[in-house]
């Protein structure tokens, strides 16, 4: 197979994986991710998303979909070189439900109650592909810009109280 075909196949696979985060079914993740696939961006995510392979990526999708209604990704650029694929994208949605972030040991760090606000988050994703499946993922995101769009910062005193209550609820649920 020539390099162009391999790169195009890898690019298509990666674009499908990004869209699957918003709308894919569980079975899609088994086709997209290798059993040992690693997400290098999951340290703040819920513990179920920290496992390798399709199950971890599926858990990440569920975490995002629960918090953000109308979740979708706009793909702007895709570049492939060998087994690496880079994607410039925007994640869009509405903050419709609480989202919890976790400590490295799995404890609840912060919970942001729903604001009902829409956002557009600039993101760059990097994937390594082997044998027609994703084996590794990294990302950079505009978290600060998104936090401003969602009115997480600067927080109002009332929102800080809501955050504290939400954190207690999530911590109790485990």
From TrEMBL:
One Pfam family recorded for the sequence: SnoaL
Gene Ontology process terms (BP): polyketide metabolic process
Entries under InterPro entries matching the protein: Cyclase_SnoaL-like (IPR009959), NTF2-like_dom_sf (IPR032710)
Domain of life: Bacteria
Protein name: SnoaL-like polyketide cyclase
Organismal lineage: Bacteria, Bacillati, Actinomycetota, Actinomycetes, Pseudonocardiales
């Amino acid at each position: 197979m020539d390099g162009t075909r391999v790169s195009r196949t890898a690019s298509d696979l990666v674009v499908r994986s990004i869209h699957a985060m918003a709308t894919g079914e569980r079975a899609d993740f088994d086709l997209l991710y290798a059993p040992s696939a690693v997400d290098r961006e999951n340290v703040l995510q819920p513990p179920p998303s920290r496992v390798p392979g399709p199950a971890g990526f599926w858990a990440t999708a569920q975490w995002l979909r629960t918090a953000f209604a109308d979740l979708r990704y706009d793909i702007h650029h895709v570049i492939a070189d060998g087994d690496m694929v880079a994607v410039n994208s925007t994640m869009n949605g509405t903050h419709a439900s609480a989202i919890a972030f976790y400590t490295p040991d799995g404890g609840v760090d912060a919970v942001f109650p729903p604001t009902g606000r829409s956002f557009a988050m600039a993101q760059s994703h990097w994937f390594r592909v082997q044998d027609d499946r994703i084996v590794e993922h990294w990302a950079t995101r505009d978290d600060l810009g998104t936090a401003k769009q969602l009115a997480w910062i600067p927080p109002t005193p009332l929102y800080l109280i809501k955050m504290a209550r939400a954190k207690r609820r999530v911590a109790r649920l485990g």
